[in-house]
Amino acid sequence: MVTQIQVDAERPALGRDTPERVLQSIVEGINSGNLDALMTLYEPRAAFAIAPGQLARELPGIRQGLSAFVAMKGTLHLEVTRVLEVDDLALVTGVWSFDGTAPDGQHVHLSAHNADVLRRQSDGSWRFVIDNPWGTD
Fold first, then answer.
1. pTM here?
2. Which CATH number goes with the domain that contains 93?
């Protein structure tokens, strides 16, 4: 299964009703620069891989890591390639690329294969437990 993530102006911003929608919400949040809304996609004790093998833990660390992407005012593209769900957990893999501008004005291009773990919440929504954009690299 391959799902191309597109930003759709008709959909409410940053939905969490399925694992795929959470990943679409990451795209929407990064591309719109909405850091506060991005933070709603994470469990309080979640982790975000800010670099391969380097985790930022819990919401303050995740906010700091995501702010680096948002600050580059770029465009994130993401294709979800697989979603594996077991009970209240989901493993989501995909391929992404990001183009933005570094603080020194230089063009930044990043790309990788993500491997993310999400958990279904008591209200039925989904949130990141581990956001690993460098997952399979």
1. 0.87
2. 3.10.450.50
